[in-house]
Design goal:
disordered N terminus; 11% strand; TIM Barrel; binds 5'-deoxyadenosine; globular; binds iron/sulfur cluster
Length: 369
């Protein structure tokens, strides 16, 4: 039972809402109810919520977990987000995969029957990079997948001019992941430099949707300055944007970023992990038929983090298939505990894996978009 709302894990409620969550039946999915559930640190409540979310997932979209092979194409970025370990001004070894390296990773995904790949990287809008992505999309679409459909492709390459999104859509990408990072414009401003714009980011999300992409979004969970209401608002933002897919995960501090160096407090690793699972579970209750990824950031906090994400209502895993030598340089945060065993763990538990399938969001299928 939760009796206190000012919690030692630095998850604050803005107003002094008094509540006592006796059990799940008292949970409401409005702003106040979501914030109360987020601030509640009662382990029994959290476990019951995650179990309920798993049941809701199975009823709404089935038990299958879909795979997307994650290819981290480059850690070169023109942006300077205050929390990110590959921000423009950080000194680190930069890399960019060659076209052949990306294609051989995609062929690996096809041979393992992953069904889809995600191409993720720092934000760049130079012509050479844009054309390279266009060529790669066409080449990946022509990879022989045997009896399976061609590989589905998700891009996650930041904000781009609308024409670039259109060019990549026409070349074969059909899903795009662009996290809003925080749905609260004030918090967004606190964790980004002045020349980054919340409005531009929102515009980019609507551009993606209008072009016809399955536009996925998400935010970090447990950043400095973030309140339980902010997290509740993030969930309500996903609902309002009517997103078909969400990739959100715990904030993991990188030692050399301005946000870490300010010394601003943030929840403990244990709390950020619990919050990561709880946000998945609450989102599953709020939007039962969407795709929700069990983010890599969960795995950094717990060796079975992604598996626990699946058991809390997520249905997508992105096994990292970036060549190992480069993968270690994609240090958004400290990832030294990265392992790739979760897919095996999940299969061992008897959870079915949607091999060879795109696993598109049922949300869109139902709405006929
Ligand atoms: N902790 C957790 N997630 C981070 N990202 C960037 N830096 C961090 C961090 N320190 C996330 C951002 C971005 C995605 C590619 O990685 O949300 O959208
Ligand atoms: Fe670049 Fe993304 Fe990191 Fe921001 S979060 S600095 S856009 S890689």
């Amino acid at each position: 039972m939760c009796q206190s709302v000012m919690l030692h894990g630095f998850v604050f409620l803005e107003e002094n809402i008094s509540f006592a969550l006796m059990d799940l039946s008292e949970l409401t999915l409005d702003r106040e109810g979501l914030a109360a559930a987020i601030a509640c640190e009662d382990a029994a409540f959290e476990a019951a919520l995650c179990e309920e979310a798993y049941r809701v997932k199975v009823a709404a979209v089935g038990p299958e977990v879909y795979l997307r092979g994650l290819i981290e194409i480059s850690n070169i970025c023109t942006k300077n987000c205050l929390y990110c370990g590959i921000r423009r001004d950080i000194r680190c070894q930069r890399y960019e995969l060659s076209e052949e390296e990306v294609l051989s990773a995609a062929r690996l995904a096809a041979s393992r029957r992953f069904g889809s790949v995600v191409i993720q990287g720092g934000e760049r809008s130079d012509a050479a990079f844009i054309r390279k992505i266009t060529r790669l999309l066409k080449a990946i679409k022509s990879i022989d997948t045997g009896d399976d459909p061609p590989l589905g492709i998700t891009l996650s390459l930041g904000e781009q001019p609308r024409e670039v999104y259109e060019e990549w859509f026409d070349a074969g990408a059909h899903r795009y992941l662009l996290r809003i990072e925080s749905s609260n414009p004030d918090l967004y401003r606190r964790i980004h430099p002045e020349d980054h714009s919340y409005d531009r980011r929102l515009r980019a999300l609507y551009d993606l949707k209008e072009i016809g992409y399955h536009a996925g979004t998400g935010a970090m969970i447990g950043t400095p300055f973030q309140t339980a209401q902010d997290m509740a608002d993030d969930l309500l933002f996903y609902k309002k944007f009517d997103t078909p897919m969400v990739g959100m995960g715990p904030y993991n501090p990188h030692p050399e970023t301005p946000l870490t160096l300010t010394g601003a407090p943030y929840p403990s690793a244990e709390r950020r992990f619990a919050l990561g699972l709880k946000m998945i579970a609450l989102l599953r209750l709020l939007m039962p038929d969407i795709n929700i990824a069990a983010a890599t950031a969960l795995e950094v906090l717990d060796p079975h983090g992604r598996e626990k994400g699946i058991l809390s209502g997520a249905n997508v895993i992105m096994p990292n298939i970036t060549p190992r030598e480069q993968m270690v340089k994609y240090n958004l945060y400290d990832r030294k505990s990265l392992n790739a065993s979760d897919v095996l763990d999940i299969a061992a538990k008897g959870i079915p894996i949607g091999y060879g399938l795109w696993g598109d969001s049922k949300h869109l299928a139902i709405e006929g978009k």
